[in-house]
């Protein structure tokens, strides 16, 4: 498999965090490959091609922990080939390092160590009838947003498609093993990293999630949300993929002066350009766009900014967008903190007065280093 592409590092009026030095690429896993590619890879190992399909059934359909340590459980494979096939096709990608629970066990946050020692996080959020997993697409992040724990840590590297998929599979295994109520039906790319800066791997991972078993996990694309700080060309490219995923634009400010500070990529693609791209995404896909807006005390939570946001959204039409104000998860030692509850209510009321559907995001795991990147930084 070819090496994951280098992270997108756009030019702008101000410098962004540059891509990290080249690191060894992750080992190829069957989740990196199409079903036909898996069968060809197995044939190259001297085994019958249909063994690739058998491994795929174990991994994607049965959610089996298919790796060299568990190979003996693969009893439908020849005993003499189990270790070889597992080692070649299903190398260990993620190793749990630390796990914390909150919300009476409904929220489980896990730090994973990758093959090269890099750390990423995922969060399993359980609801009465379903479960959502928040996944990482990069180890660290190069977007340099000052209020974000991950952004301040900088970028280590892109994840491979299989490293992304494995976070979803791990969550599904937990639900299945615990016979928990509700399957994992929703995936949000809102963990560590800017997924559209790791475009090829992120799209490949989504295709594995939605492909019918045993090609993939057989999930609905409508249950997948792709979050971005506003890489405008990549938003257009995503719209053309034919994947009806939800786009979530992390806006955080309706004016360029403030967004230049909060989201440095804005120095390359402005608020207006990001919103135009989001509207075009809706026009192409028919999928309503989410606007993510972290409310930061005395920074971006003024009522006039709510009015400006409502005006900017309505200038691009009605019915295409939904706003999610998010109470900021503060990080230790940071000057950024959540808005006062009354200020938050006023902000929401002003948006709704403009006719903009608005729902405050349900925050999970505040007591377990809930902000992305916080927990990994403590390991």
TrEMBL record:
The active site is at 121 (proton acceptor), 372 (s-methylcysteine intermediate). It is found in: Cytoplasm. Keywords: 4Fe-4S, Cytoplasm, Disulfide bond, Iron, Iron-sulfur, Metal-binding, Methyltransferase, rRNA processing, S-adenosyl-L-methionine, Transferase, tRNA processing. Specifically methylates position 2 of adenine 2503 in 23S rRNA and position 2 of adenine 37 in tRNAs. Its EC number is 2.1.1.192. Belongs to the radical SAM superfamily. RlmN family. This is Probable dual-specificity RNA methyltransferase RlmN. Reaction proceeds by a ping-pong mechanism involving intermediate methylation of a conserved cysteine residue. InterPro entries: Aldolase_TIM (IPR013785), Methyltransferase_A (IPR040072), RNA_MTrfase_RlmN (IPR027492), rRNA_lsu_MTrfase_RlmN/Cfr (IPR004383), rSAM (IPR007197), rSAM_sf (IPR058240). NCBIfam families: rRNA_mod_RlmN. The lineage of its organism: Bacteria, Bacillati, Actinomycetota, Actinomycetes, Kineosporiales. S-adenosyl-L-methionine binds at residues 193-194, 227, 250-252, 329. It comes from the Bacteria. GO terms for biological process: methylation. It holds the Pfam family Radical_SAM. It is an enzyme of class 2 (transferase). Binds 1 [4Fe-4S] cluster. The cluster is coordinated with 3 cysteines and an exchangeable S-adenosyl-L-methionine. GO terms for molecular function: methyltransferase activity. [4Fe-4S] cluster binds at residues 141, 145, 148. Transmembrane segments: none annotated. Its cofactor is [4Fe-4S] cluster. Residues 1-29 are annotated as: Disordered. The gene is rlmN.
